[in-house]
Request: fold
Amino acid sequence: MATEALVSFAVERLGDKLIQEAKFLKGVSRQADRLHRDLRAMQCFLEEADKKQEEDSRVRNWVSDIREAVYNAEDIIDMFILNAQSLRRNFFLKCGFKKLINRYKVGKKIEALQLGLLDISNRREALGIKNIGEGRSRSAENQMLQGLRRSSPHAEEHVVVGLEKEADELVNQLIGGDLRRRVISLVGMGGIGKTTLAKKVYNHRQVVECFPDCRAWAYVSPDCRPRDVYMQIIKQLVCTSTKDQQVLEMVEKLQEHELGDFLHEHLKEKRYLIVLDDVWSCRDWNCLAKVSSNNPDCLGNVFPDGGNGSRLLLTTRNKDVALHADARSTPQEMQLLSKQKSWNLFCGKAFLDHVDADRYPPDLVQLGREMVDKCNGLPLAIVVLGGLLSRDMSHTEWRKVHDNINAYLAKEGSQTGVMTVLNLSYIDLPSYLKPCFLHLSLFLEDYVISTRKLFLLWIAEGFVLSAEQADQQSMKVTAEVYLNELINRNLIQVVRMSVNARVVECRVHDLMRELAIRKAKEQNFFRTHDIEDPLSSSTSNSSLFSSKCRRQSIYSDMERYASVEHNTPYLRSLLFFNLGHEICRFSQLDFIGKCFKVLRVLDLEGVKVESLPSIVGTLIHLRYLGLRHTGLKLLPLSIGNLRSLQTLDVNNLKQVPNVIWKIQNMRYLYMEGQKYDIPLKIDTLENLQVLSGITFKQWIQNNSSKLTCLGKLKLEGRYELVEGVEFWKSIAKLRVLKSLYLKASEESSFPSLAMDSCLYLSKLDIKGHMQKLSESFQFPPNLSQLTLDSCRLDCDPMPILEKLPKLLTLRLRAESYLGTEMHVSANGFPQLKVLQLFELSKVIKLNIENGAIPWLMQLHCQFSTRISGVHKLSNLVEVKIVIDSMIPSFSPFARFLSTYRSRKYHLYWDHSWTTNRNGQKEFWTRRRKASDCQTCAATGLTSVQNSAVAVEMIGPIFSRWDSTQEKGS
Reply:
């Protein structure tokens, strides 16, 4: 369980409060300090108790009592500080009398709590819980964390076993058969691989050829909301480029039934493939397809039958849904894996190769086979178990898991059995990761989570502790280590990676989320409030949430939630999701400040807010305030009273009130898109680590030397309003600044920038018109990542940029260069590993001389850019070609690539088609590892020769395509 970790964090926070809030605790500080010592002493027994409570309900109750005691202690101290702060503003004579009463009441509460702790302690020996020593060493734990690998699993590393036959059958159903619109369904229990198979088929070459321009994937989930599903599909099918943003804005204003009609009109003359993943009920299908209840045999009004071979692919756990959607199609029921296929899948996860287990000790192989047999062929259970065991290859560890697995596997094929196997992975988590995993249960099913936001929430919750609490700079790094470990343990799935292989977006598998929800509810960690939840008259408002509930996620609309009677005065976190487009009135938000006075986290992202009430300023314990994409234009002046606030995330305000300087604990300040450039004082924020959205003029009016912790800075607005030399002097004063983003407004431009004084800067992004590119010696000397966007340079930037000695990543985007050719000379870019050239509409040729870019590994460019010299790049491992589907030659090129056959090319390279976030087609090719090239030895090539031959295969594809076009013309 996570109790030991949660209590540890709570005790740490309590100790911090006793130090930080000493002025408010005057009069009860001695009692509070003694309470803290008692709780620390009790903490010493929790680790052993945590291990025992799975098997002993008495111990479980004892641990629960400690957790409640710690929560009560937090509540008492937080409420006392809140009341003391309120009384400080009152200068009437009766204020002193109220203070005495307040201290007396708190003293009595602490005394009662200490008596309860004494009783809990007396019961410890009777339960056989021994002292394991005086607390735990956080520094030792963090030393271990520093050694954790930072990398995350990639898509090509996914092990898929036993789906070849099923995939072939499914492909044949999708591309063959009669021309009527058919609904083909994958049916099976949770975790059996329905979505895995659907994705495999969706990206299959033959399927892509059959549906080249009209494919879409939509998650449905148990919470089926037709509008959301329609928008997912429309964004993939209709809004395929930035030119369609106006269409998207128009579509987003439509009502649900209008969206269905719009989708029907768009599809009715096309051959389409739509995947609806995770459909739970016949009712959900009726809602999505708009099947009339009077005529259930009709096809519905959304997905038309044009008699052209269109297909819908459903994944569902319920066979009735499949038969209901299309009674004439036989559902494909997925089977559990055979023993051999189960073993192959296990080897791919535990031994990190598919079947070559002979290289491993026979004792581990025997233990592994016995454990795989107990998984009953369920892929998800096998994957989780293999991932768990891959971390420790010792016989002792495998024997421990082997001997305990019987307790966690239930009856064959049961849902409980799956949860129990997943629970095994949870039990194995170190204590510092358990709260982070439980926290993921707050997010909606299939919700794509921004890791930036996730890190900040974990920090605000107190889940991330650095080696020394004062070392705040390392907390985001530690949070990222936590995330990567959860990914490596197969508890979180990667959705999107950055160019430097860091996880940008992630999600949680639905079964893993269900596990997290079960565990979280056991500990009053959180509660959800859904639109279908107990707002009905049959349920009393007082039973909605436990009064001790610490966190709530709200999935219903704000108005309905605000109307409920709230009896959770000690709520610490409140997150809102998926609330639609209704604007919240001023009065609807008042209840937050009135009912949740000790709130630490308030996330309103996506909620349409008319204005923020000033009562929010009374939430003095608030650490995280998320207001992004709310439509909010002004913040109340009372925001300056949030003295505990660490993160403020807001965008597109008319202006930021000049009270931010009062928030001394501010560490992460996001305020992009200010409309008015008014003065803003921020140089009092000595703890500030990230500052995003301040204007150039606002920045230069502050003393940057006081911002000693600032590591990331994004500036916007009109650069010409500041004096260049003074500006760069102010940047040079930031001794820990690593990342700088400069964004000029449309009417503004950058002159030649002298940045050589920025000795610590490693990442630079410049967006906006540049009059002239700086000379190479004017760039920061330690620059490793450079992005130029919309710079509209007239001269080829390569002769300057190729001289940057430490540059590893170069991205040129969106008309950053207006010429037609670029040239990289010999010995240019000595260390560059990633080169991205996107939306350079006029660039038709890139010449790479022999000896240039020797270490280039990733090359991303447009189809319209011809590259000469690519065969000389012997270290190249990945090429991505972005193709605008609107160009006339797209379809012939797609057919050409699909039919092109080169034995050498397919021997060494894999390739596929994808669609990027802008809806553009991408041809993606990646060199196989030498170990994957089965005929490599037969060719007699060394690994270096193999690499060179593989690279040479890219050029002929495009040269042959060019010659084909010439012949055709």
Summary: DSSP finds 33 helices and 31 strands in the chain. The longest helix spans residues 94-126. The mean pLDDT is 76.
